[in-house]
Every structure is written in C-alpha cells, then in structure tokens.
Amino acid sequence: MISNRLEGKRAIVTGAGSGIGREISLRLAGEGARVVLADIDEAAARAVADQIAGDVLVQRTDVTSEPEVEALVARVVDRWGGLDVLVNNAGVGIAADAPGTALEDWQFVLDVSLKGTFLGIKHAVPAMRLSGGGSIINLSSIAALVGLKDRAAYCAAKGGVLALTRAAAIDHVEEGIRVNCIAPGTVETPWVDRITAGYEDPVAAKATMQARQPHGRFVQPEEIAAMAAYLASDEAGSVVGACMTVDGGMTAR
Ligand SMILES: NC(=O)c1ccc[n+]([C@@H]2O[C@H](COP(=O)([O-])OP(=O)(O)OC[C@H]3O[C@@H](n4cnc5c(N)ncnc54)[C@H](O)[C@@H]3O)[C@@H](O)[C@H]2O)c1
C-alpha cells in the first residue's frame, strides 16, 4: 500500500523521462511529494508529468551543464520555497572494455553519470541547508561493486558515484542532509535494449543480462522506485552514506 509519507516534500528527479527515473517520479508523486521532472528529453519528461495528478513541474535539463543544473534548483526554490529531495538518476552507459572505448565515449559516460551527480549535489546542498535538511539519492549500480564484462567506463563512473556518495554523506550529515546511493542489478528499462542492440546477438545478450540475477529475472523499475521513496522519507533518518543494493542477489554470491 502506498502511503502519504512524502507529503509536503519538494523533489527533483533527473532523467525523469524514462525507465527508473520515470518510475521514481511517479512513486514520489504518488506518496505526496511535489516533483520536478528534469530530463534532456523534455517531451519524454512531459509525457510522465501528464500521468501525475499532483503538483508537478517539467524542466529540460542537461545534467552536464552547470548553469542548467543551477537553474533547475533555483526554479524549485522559487516555486516551492525550498528543496528536500534530489534524485541524481540521469546516466548513460556503453558496452566496451577499455581498449574498445573511444576517449569521447569515456568522457560522455563519466560526464553524464559522475559530473552530473557532482553538479546536482553541488547546487542542491545550499538549497537544502536553507530548507533545514534533505535527502540526496544517487543512482550508482552493482557495476560499482563488481567487475562487469565490457563496461569499463560505466563501472568507473558508477564507482565514482559510490565514492562521491560517501564523501558527500560525511560532509553534510551534520547539516541534516542525508546522501545515499542505490545499486541496482539489471533493471528492465529501455536502456537494456539499447545496450544489447550493440551485440552481434542482442537476444542472447539480453538473456545473459537477465540470467545474471540469482532470482532469475530482471529487477523492475518499480522496485528501485520503492527504495528511492524509502530513502527520501523520514523513515530512513539513520541511513547515511549507504549503498542499497537492489539486485536479486547478484552481489551476494
Ligand atoms: N537499467 C539498468 O539495468 C540500470 C542498472 C543500474 C543502474 N542504472 C542507472 O539508473 C539510471 C537510469 O537508468 P535507466 O535504465 O532508467 O535509463 P534510461 O535510458 O531508460 O533513462 C535515462 C534517462 O536519462 C535521460 N538523460 C540522459 N542523458 C541526460 C542528461 N545529460 N541530462 C539529463 N537527462 C539525461 C534520458 O533522456 C532518459 O530519459 C542511470 O543512472 C543508470 O546508469 C540502470
């Protein structure tokens, strides 16, 4: 049963137009939060906003642009008087080992996932301070915890997100700002189809990704959204600098 435990909270979700970000946005709004849906694909974010009955804003944002992230935070503060929750969800991946990774692809993956998360934290913290505290939730991955084949840049980016999460958690805990990350296993989103499309046999590649989870199926985006809603809520008041795995047992082997 979905509660009203996020009533009154003002939240930003990046990458809100698809997959995990979409489900997190719907769940936060469903639990009573006011949500800004930020995505580089404004039309996609708007389509998600159309499914939300409550207070919702859409802002086209490229998380790699500091002025755009700054403007995103400023809009929430202007409109709703503060910021309580930031979900740094926008991220991209490519399938390649290090020798097969072009420098610009490395930079692209690191920019969206790691620099984007850094910029989110950088600009959300001052707004949260003025709001009396908050919760920042970063999307890392089990790629931060185990080596995944053909994911050199992605593992590096998500490892960086995990380390940054812990650093920011310690920096800001005394200000009442909790910083945590979620490490999903393989989640059934459009991203999985995109990444497997690059393989010679995309169907076999998808089956391999599914079989990696010991519980025998893909993680569902709703299961990540449930974890995000918990971390956003006051029920998670002692959860600080944590890496919450939602991976069907993948890292328990
Ligand atoms: N799907 C998985 O198996 C999985 C597993 C672990 C972690 N994750 C992480 O979860 C997050 C969401 O993944 P997903 O599977 O929902 O992906 P997705 O591709 O379905 O959605 C990503 C969204 O981010 C947006 N986006 C991309 N670049 C952006 C930018 N520069 N600025 C703002 N928005 C941007 C896209 O437009 C899209 O709407 C990512 O950080 C991803 O690395 C996914």
Order of helices and strands: EHEHEHEHEHEHHHE
| Arithmetic mean of pLDDT | 96
Helix coverage percent of residues? 40-55%
Number of strands: 7
Fill in the keyword field for this structure.
single chain, 253 residues, Rossmann fold, seven-stranded parallel beta sheet, 45% helix, binds nicotinamide-adenine-dinucleotide
Topology:
Blueprint: E1 10-14, H1 19-30, E2 34-39, H2 42-49, E3 56-60, H3 66-80, E4 85-88, H4 103-130, E5 134-139, H5 152-172, E6 177-184, H6 190-196, H7 202-211, H8 221-232, E7 243-246
Parallel strand pairs: 1-2, 1-4, 2-3, 4-5, 5-6, 6-7
Can you walk me through this structure?
By secondary structure, the chain is an alpha/beta fold. The chain has a single domain (10-245), classed as NAD(P)-binding Rossmann-like Domain (Rossmann fold), CATH 3.40.50.720. The protein contains eight helices and seven strands; from the N terminus they run E-H-E-H-E-H-E-H-E-H-E-H-H-H-E. It has helices at residues 19-30, 42-49, 66-80, 103-130, 152-172, 190-196, 202-211, 221-232, and strands at 10-14, 34-39, 56-60, 85-88, 134-139, 177-184, 243-246. The chain has a seven-stranded parallel sheet, sandwiched between helices. Strand 4, helix 4 (103-130) and strand 5 form a beta-alpha-beta unit. Helix 1 packs across helix 8 and helix 4 (103-130) runs parallel beside helix 5. 45% of the residues are buried. The model has no long low-confidence stretch (mean pLDDT 96). The structure holds nicotinamide-adenine-dinucleotide. Nicotinamide-adenine-dinucleotide is lined by residues 14-15, 17-21, 39-41, 44, 61-64, 89-93, 112-113, 139, 141, 184, 186-187, 189-192.
